[in-house]
Amino acid sequence: KRIVVLISGTGSNMQAIQQACENGKVAGKVVAVISNKASAKGLEKAATKGIDTEVLSHKEFDSREAYDAELKTLIDSYQPDLVVLAGFMRILTGEFTRHYEGRMFNIHPSLLPKYKGVNTHQRALDAGDTEHGVSVHFVTEELDGGPVALQAKVPIFEGDTVEDIQARVHEQEHRIYPLVVNWFCQERLKLEGGRVTLDGEV
Ligand code: GRF
């Protein structure tokens, strides 16, 4: 399967998925990495692996609709089976999310439906939570609101900093994102009638 990954920053999740493809752990290939920021570190990492990289800056567009329309055209020029959002820090229009319904994932650093939006680790810490985690979900129009495919939990210990929690979450992200992408590539994981279905063994 052909995978296009969208990033805005470090791209460690993109890298985890790319490596899993290379190692045969994901039945797919990352065909392009697209960023809305030219400074995204992940772009160099992708280029090193010989993957096509593209920058489409949102600053050059007057509206969210215009940006998303151009982004859609760019993504579709790679004819992907799957679009993976990996730290892509943009709110997406309904038209865009509907176009990729059932074939676009996002990873969000919380146990959804808890803590949609930003600063999730700080919010979990402030709330005194002892449990936190990460979710991979199908993308729908509602921000961080699409059906969850898989979650992983991490503990929060007394005295933890945001950085401690972030490191623990990242470790889980790099484990579960390739797993979900592989299930999708194997056509075992689907969005059917707004619900997630998984065939076979986890
Ligand atoms: C991850 O923590 C992810 O959950 C969030 O953005 C971060 C991206 O990290 N959506 P990276 O760019 O993959 O390293």
Automatic annotation (TrEMBL):
The keyword Transferase is assigned to this record: yes
Residues at the site labelled Raises pKa of active site His: D144
Active site, per annotation: H108 (proton donor)
Binding site for N(1)-(5-phospho-beta-D-ribosyl)glycinamide: G11, S12, N13
Enzyme class: transferase
Residues that hold (6R)-10-formyltetrahydrofolate according to the record: R64, M89, R90, I91, L92, N106
Listed GO biological process terms: 'de novo' IMP biosynthetic process
Pathway: Purine metabolism; IMP biosynthesis via de novo pathway; N(2)-formyl-N(1)-(5-phospho-D-ribosyl)glycinamide from N(1)-(5-phospho-D-ribosyl)glycinamide (10-formyl THF route): step 1/1
A GO-annotated cellular component: cytosol
Reactions catalysed: N(1)-(5-phospho-beta-D-ribosyl)glycinamide + (6R)-10-formyltetrahydrofolate = N(2)-formyl-N(1)-(5-phospho-beta-D-ribosyl)glycinamide + (6S)-5,6,7,8-tetrahydrofolate + H(+)
Domain Formyl transferase N-terminal positions: 1-181
Family annotation (PROSITE patterns): GART
Function field: Catalyzes the transfer of a formyl group from 10-formyltetrahydrofolate to 5-phospho-ribosyl-glycinamide (GAR), producing 5-phospho-ribosyl-N-formylglycinamide (FGAR) and tetrahydrofolate.
Classification via NCBIfam families: PurN
Family note: Belongs to the GART family.
The protein, known as: Phosphoribosylglycinamide formyltransferase
Species whose genome carries this gene: Idiomarina ramblicola
Gene encoding the protein: purN
